[in-house]
Amino acid sequence: MPDPITHLSVSYVVARHRFRNHKVLFLCSTIIPDIDGLIGLIYIFLFLPSNTPREEMAKVFQAFHPSLPASFLFLPFFVLLVLFAFRFVNRKLVPDSFKDAYFLILAAMLIHLGLDLLMTGNKPFWPFQLEAGIGIIPYN
């Protein structure tokens, strides 16, 4: 996957021109599909011994990411979940119109998944093990 800095940089350029009033929501929504990776890192640090080989850590991490949040099949539901979570946390971050808010979060997540498709080994239809990507960025 492209690193979080790439996701945020590309999204910031889009948000500056299209979503000026809701940049924070757009940027947060762009990075949220990688939440499973954060969960995997927390699991590794909490439950694996410190002398675990890197290869083993990479296998454990790949068991977590990419998964449900980075799947096109789950995307419409995940957008709703994120929308309601943001409305619960801070209503000022979210547009008043449900349609506008849904489109904004969907656009951000589609940018994320689109950038992920630049690599090989991506699984955008998780839980199915179909790999997709155009192979510009190798998956390590």
Provide an overview of this structure:
With 140 residues, the protein is mostly helical. The protein contains 6 helices and no strands. Helix 2 crosses helix 6 (98-116), helix 3 (35-47) crosses helix 4 (54-64) and helix 5 (75-89) crosses helix 6. It starts with a helix and ends in a 24-residue tail after the last helix.
> Approximately how much beta-strand content do the residues carry?
under 5%
Low-confidence sequence ranges: none
Overall mean confidence score, pLDDT: 83
Radius of gyration, taken over Cα atoms and rounded to an integer in Å: 16 Å
Order of helices and strands: HHHHHH
N- to C-terminal distance: 9 Å
Oligomer kind: single chain
Largest sheet: none
What labels describe this entry?
140 residues, mainly alpha, globular
What order do the helices and strands come in, and which of them pair?
Layout: H1 4-18, H2 23-31, H3 35-47, H4 54-64, H5 75-89, H6 98-116
Question: What's this model, at a glance?
Answer:
With 140 residues, the chain is mainly α. It has helices at residues 4-18, 23-31, 35-47, 54-64, 75-89, 98-116. The chain contains six helices and no strands.
